[in-house]
Design goal:
Elements: H1 3-6, E1 8-17, E2 20-28, H2 31-35, E3 37-43, E4 52-55, E5 64-68, E6 73-80, E7 85-91, E8 122-126, H3 132-144, E9 148-150, H4 161-171, E10 174-179, H5 186-197, E11 202-206, H6 214-229
Parallel strand pairs: 8-9, 8-10, 10-11
Antiparallel strand pairs: 1-2, 2-5, 3-4, 3-6, 6-7
Amino acid sequence: MSQQDEFRIEQWSQYVGNDRWKWSCWIDAEPEPMSRISSVTWILHPTFSPSRITLKTRENQFRLDSGGWGTFTLRAKLDLTGGSSLELRRALKLDHPESDVAKTLPPASPPHTSENPGRGPKVFLSYSSEYEKQANELNKIICDQGGAVLLAKQASAGQPLEAAVQKMIRESDAFVTIQSEDYNSHWVMLETKIAHAEGKPILSIPAGHDGTDTAVQHEVQMQVASFVKNIDL
């Protein structure tokens, strides 16, 4: 039996109303393989903050308790004794009560930020949760130029997040991403890959500037403003 077959992700969920669920996930394995797990890093969708959670609680099978409104692919990185590691994946399943199915229908049109009702170009903004502050700065610049920002967290409740995000990128006019030189989340890389496949104009902004360097901040503002102005509708 391979290591991949020795471990699996199990989950539980409960609908709590208003298109939201509480859910838990944990690692299931026989006692001997379980004893070889040093820690588990749960990798969630970037709309979660934090989106990477490391647990060392073997006594409860590295159980993570959380909640939300959409499905996505759960990923778990298992650090094993001896220095090896293993990654597991499982689609998070959220069952909706039949009486509430109608409430999960998507809105008639894509959501937009409150700053802009959608008359200008629609720009999908991709980033990891640790760059929330920087993303908010880019959001404002795009809206100031008459654009509307689409975010993964705007996906309709009850929809699979991966499918909803792909649809939002397909319906956008351009794609802006915050990219780190050291590490980019699985979701940022996936969203960027979708944007490339859809042939969207893409602008990549380096991660990490905190707004204290006014020269860098001004350069970013000019770069984003020029990009939005030149989007073909």
